[in-house]
């Protein structure tokens, strides 16, 4: 479905939302932090409910990903996108060393097609690893 959004005359379709999520994961996988940052709104909000962490802003979120320990690989298994409300959900298989886990990610987008919000759901509740306190708020 195509709709006009936000008074700026931007036409949205589910394929555009899907492509934005694919670009986000491709940039993250390539460790191309400039390209990754380009997918994000300046005031992006990242939430991880299981660890009760929130990161506010593009600079902190990019740094969080850049500093994430280990060689994390992400394979997209499915994306469901809605252009009308500028949202998407993705199921991924994440590999970190010998460990594999599925995760669900919810994305919202701003009027310009940049990611305004990301909420990640991991398989289990966990305490966040030490070393990222300078980037996150706990709730």
Assembly of the depicted chains: single chain
Strand content: 35-45%
> Span between N and C termini?
37 Å
**Structural class of the secondary elements?**
alpha+beta
Biggest β-sheet strands, sense, barrel: 7 strands, mixed
**Contiguous uncertain segments of 5+ residues:** 1-10
Strand order of the largest sheet: 5-6-7-8-3-4-9
Mean pLDDT reading: 88
| 3D shape | globular
Walk me through what this model shows.
- The structure is a single chain.
- This protein is an alpha+beta fold.
- The chain is 24% helix and 43% strand.
- The protein contains three helices and nine strands.
- The protein has a seven-stranded mixed sheet. A two-stranded antiparallel ribbon has the order 1-2.
- A hairpin with a 4-residue loop joins strand 3 and strand 4.
- The longest helix is centred in the N-terminal third of the chain and has 17 residues, at 14-30.
């Amino acid at each position: 479905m195509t709709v006009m959004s936000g008074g700026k005359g931007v036409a949205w379709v589910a394929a555009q939302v899907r492509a934005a999520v694919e670009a986000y994961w491709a940039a993250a996988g390539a460790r191309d932090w400039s390209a990754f940052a380009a997918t994000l709104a300046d005031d992006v909000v990242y939430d991880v409910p299981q660890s009760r962490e929130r990161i506010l802003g593009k600079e902190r979120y990019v740094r969080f990903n850049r500093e994430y320990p280990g060689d994390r690989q992400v394979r997209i298994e499915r994306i469901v996108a809605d252009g009308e409300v500028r949202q998407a959900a993705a199921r991924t298989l994440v590999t970190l060393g010998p460990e594999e886990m599925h995760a669900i990610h919810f994305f919202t987008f701003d009027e310009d097609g940049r990611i305004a919000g990301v909420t990640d759901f991991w398989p289990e509740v966990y305490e966040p690893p030490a070393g990222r306190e300078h980037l996150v708020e706990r709730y």
